[in-house]
DNA sequence: GCCAGAGGCGCC
DNA sequence: AAAGGGCGCCTCTGGC
């Protein structure tokens, strides 16, 4: 039985609390406790805590060693509800929600905090702690309950709100735990790849050598990190480029190409994950990024500083379990096509996605006479909105064999082009279209209406190219976002599965989790991941034959997981 | 000196 | 084979 309590921090580390009845209203007067963590610790019967925002409460509980089972994050809920109501840009703070409820002036949201590099403390800097009283907070909560109930699928949106709240708990816990990071291994790797640094500063040896090779190949001094310089050098060699992107340079027959590409790859590691990154972000053997659940419109998480979701594969060699411990690395195999099967309920596609094996191989056996590469391209093209090339031809094949799956994303694309909103399976809602006049005002250049390449004029007030771009966005949104719905439930389920074990969730990246655990817990953790996946599939999509298998590896080093 | 935007590339 | 979706973050540039 869920017993709900509401909590609001007060000055000097205290808290106002109240027990809630089944209707979400307090069943006893608000009481004041001198110690927030103790107030929670002494009420193990409370299985869900309702509070303004997880960020300003949970780190204090973690620091005091207090675990909460579940929470309801009012500001996360407000964000989801506003988007669902088509009011994506409105302020989402509890104070703003209260002002809308009472008809007062709505305060703008505070500017987003920027994480101090490597800080342990950014999570502990509370916003103005008590800008809304507990009684007022509970009025906002009651109103949110009402708004959930008025949606087309209240159960789904409630589930999403609960999961988003659970994600907030996980985010704070992963920040506190940190990803095991061996600075000594990272340094050795940097020296191996980039060479020694010179005492006077500047680029490390290997980068300087590659820059010299590029210059030698052109017969003049060229700075490989300056695109304009590279384009000019190629032009002088008789080769016209529109950019210096790798895919454009790769095919060119010129001696500068090889060292240039090598330079770009190493330069990236040097600037984004090199010595200064290490200095800024790794403390006491842990990398602690600040995770922002729902940081993107589709519901995927972002991180604030440290580039935690873009760790280059080669750098993962520095992610090493503590002695006697393991990293259980689990990757959801072909998550997005499986999600498309579940949300479209295409019978043939569900059958393919109902097996744990290689989905692309099954698709190709059915529609592409065994050419797995073509099948994968077609499926990804359908999800991403391929507009040209072989993908289109393959898309036609896919449509014949899996008509409902393709129709589902086509409809999402049409909705986007027509300026309508689309939603994920659980109800996360895309932002509204921005009309052409507003874009012009914001400095976004518009198509030339006289340009035949920009197509016929649209009837929706958007240039056709903008409209098509929004179609690609909404097409992808329903799949990527529903996959994020599922991943969020999986994460919440896994958090509960791990309760009582020494194992800790230490990383989450869209369709992949890492759990750090004692060696003899690794098998139980792998089993917990499978249970969490099954439960998430059932809870998110109801009865469905679609399976969401994980590739699970128990390793000492992250780089060995694949 | 600050800031926004562009170019580029890492991850999914 | 072509360059579709979502992000964060780095450098450099050019305007103020």
TrEMBL record:
Catalytic reaction(s) noted: DNA(n) + a 2'-deoxyribonucleoside 5'-triphosphate = DNA(n+1) + diphosphate
A matching Pfam family: DNA_pol_A
Any GO BP: double-strand break repair
Region (Disordered): 101-126, 439-467
EC number per UniProt: 2.7.7.7
UniProt GO molecular function: DNA binding; DNA-directed DNA polymerase activity; exonuclease activity
InterPro entries found in the cross-reference section: DNA-dir_DNA_pol_A_palm_dom (IPR001098), DNA/RNA_pol_sf (IPR043502), DNA_polymerase_A (IPR002298)
Keyword terms: DNA replication, Exonuclease, Hydrolase, Nuclease
Pro residues composition-biased segments: 105-114
Domain (DNA-directed DNA polymerase family A palm): residue spans on this chain: 312-521
Name under which the protein is recorded: DNA-directed DNA polymerase
Biological classification of the source: Bacteria, Bacillati, Actinomycetota, Actinomycetes, Kitasatosporales
């Amino acid at each position: 039985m869920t017993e709900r309590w509401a909590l609001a921090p007060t000055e000097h580390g205290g808290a106002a609390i109240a027990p809630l009845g089944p209707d979400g209203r307090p069943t006893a007067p608000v009481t004041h406790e001198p110690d927030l963590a103790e107030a929670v610790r002494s009420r193990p019967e409370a299985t869900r805590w309702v509070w303004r925002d997880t960020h300003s409460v949970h780190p204090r509980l973690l620091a005091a060693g207090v675990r909460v089972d579940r929470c309801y994050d009012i500001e996360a809920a407000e964000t989801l509800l506003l988007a669902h109501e088509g009011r994506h840009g409105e302020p989402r703070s509890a104070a703003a929600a209260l002002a809308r409820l009472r008809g007062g002036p709505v305060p703008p949201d505070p500017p987003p905090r920027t994480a101090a590099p490597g800080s342990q403390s950014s999570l502990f800097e509370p916003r103005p702690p008590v800008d809304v009283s507990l009684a007022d907070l509970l009025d906002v909560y009651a109103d949110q309950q009402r708004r959930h109930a008025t949606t087309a699928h209240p159960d789904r949106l409630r589930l999403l709100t609960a999961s988003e709240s659970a994600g907030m708990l996980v985010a704070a816990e992963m920040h506190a735990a940190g990803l095991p990071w061996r600075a000594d291994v990272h340094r050795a790797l940097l020296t191996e790849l980039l060479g020694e640094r010179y005492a006077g500063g500047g680029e490390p040896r290997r980068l300087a050598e590659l820059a010299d090779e590029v210059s030698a190949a052109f017969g003049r001094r060229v700075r490989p990190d300056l695109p304009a310089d590279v384009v000019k050098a190629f032009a002088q060699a008789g080769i016209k480029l529109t950019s210096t992107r790798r895919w454009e340079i790769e095919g060119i027959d010129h001696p500068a190409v090889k060292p240039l590409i090598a330079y770009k790859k190493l330069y990236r590691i040097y600037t984004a994950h090199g010595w200064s990154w290490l200095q800024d972000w790794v403390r006491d053997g842990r990398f602690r990024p600040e995770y922002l659940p729902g940081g993107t419109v589709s519901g995927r998480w972002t991180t604030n500083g440290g580039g935690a979701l873009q760790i280059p594969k080669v750098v993962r060699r520095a992610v090493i379990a503590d002695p006697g411990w393991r990293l259980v690395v689990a990757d959801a195999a072909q998550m997005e096509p499986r999600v498309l099967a579940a949300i479209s309920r295409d019978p043939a596609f569900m059958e393919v996605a109902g097996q744990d094996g290689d989905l692309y191989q099954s698709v190709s056996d059915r529609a592409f006479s065994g050419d797995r590469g073509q099948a994968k391209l077609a499926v990804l093209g359908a999800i991403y909105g391929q507009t040209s090339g072989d993908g289109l031809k393959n898309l036609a094949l896919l449509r014949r064999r899996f008509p409902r799956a393709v129709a589902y994303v086509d409809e999402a694309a049409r909705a986007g082009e027509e300026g309508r909103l689309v939603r994920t399976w659980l109800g996360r809602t895309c932002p509204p279209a921005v009309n052409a006049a507003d874009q012009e005002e914001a400095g976004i250049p518009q198509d030339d209406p006289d340009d035949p390449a920009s197509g016929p004029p649209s009837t929706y007030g958007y240039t056709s190219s903008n409209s098509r771009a929004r179609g690609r966005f909404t097409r992808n949104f329903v799949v990527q976002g529903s996959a994020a719905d599922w991943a969020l439930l999986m994460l919440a389920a896994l958090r509960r599965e791990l309760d009582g074990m020494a194992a800790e969730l230490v990383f989450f990246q869209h369709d992949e989790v890492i759990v750090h655990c004692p060696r003899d817990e690794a098998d139980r953790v792998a089993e917990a991941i499978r249970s969490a996946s099954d439960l998430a599939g059932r809870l998110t999509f109801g009865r469905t034959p679609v399976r969401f298998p994980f590739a699970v590896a128990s390793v000492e080093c992250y780089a060995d997981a694949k």
